[in-house]
Amino acid sequence: MEARFDMFDNEIAAKFAKRFANASLVITQSPLPKSTLELVSLRASQINGCGWCIDLHTKELAAAGESAVRINLVAAWRESTVFTEAEQAALALAEEGTRLADAHQGVSDETWGLVRKHYDDDQIAALVAGVALINAANRLAVIVHQRGGSYEPGMFAAALS
């Protein structure tokens, strides 16, 4: 299946993509650990079936030195022993924040309490914004059928500077 539309080759889409990427800088420059942000982004992308984003986040995690075991177990994080309590709280927030239509209350009080236990206000702001941003990115890529497989770690770094 070919991509339906090239979001990198249209003037309006390119302007939007640059602003979207610049918004992500606020999150990546926050005190939230980069590995946590990538794990959360990978989990939301798995839920949303976004091959492009799964490709991107697995490769970025690997390039940053994350173990294959942890990358492979993100999809089953509840049934694994390789994530910290803080990472588990972030992954739960990502799942509940992604599956809004599946739970009438959205993010549960229990999950929110775990997030508050492990993260300060700046980290929480970045985590919430990160979940929202990755869900938007997933939707963009899935709508136009942007397929995974061609991403190279760091390939958008020059565009952001």
TrEMBL record:
Residues 16-96 form the Carboxymuconolactone decarboxylase-like domain. InterPro entries: AhpD-like, AhpD_core, CMD-like. It holds the Pfam family CMD. One of its GO terms (molecular function) is peroxiredoxin activity. Signal peptide: none annotated. NCBIfam families: ahpD_dom. This is Carboxymuconolactone decarboxylase family protein.
